[in-house]
Amino acid sequence: MDDNGDQHRSDPFADFTAISAWPHLGPDPDGRYFFGGERDGAALGEFGWSLPMGGSGGCGGGAGSFGARDCFGDVDQIIGAGAGAGGGQVSAGAGSSSAPPPPPRGSDAASAAGGTAGGDASTSNRSASSESSEDPPERSAASGESLLAPEKPNKVRKKGQKRIKQPRFAFMTKSEVDHLEDGYRWRKYGQKAVKNSPYPRSYYRCTNSKCTVKKRVERSSEDPAIVVTTYEGQHCHHSAGYLRSSTISHEATFGRHFAYPPSQIYHPTRLHVPIETSPYNLNTHRAPTSSGDSQRLLTSSGERGEPSGVNQLLPTEGLLADVVPPKMR
DNA sequence: CGTCTTTGACCCGCGC
DNA sequence: GCGCGGGTCAAAGACG
Question: What is the DSSP string of A54-87?
Answer without folding.
Answer: TSS-SBTTTB-BSS-GGGHHHHHHHHHSTTHHHH
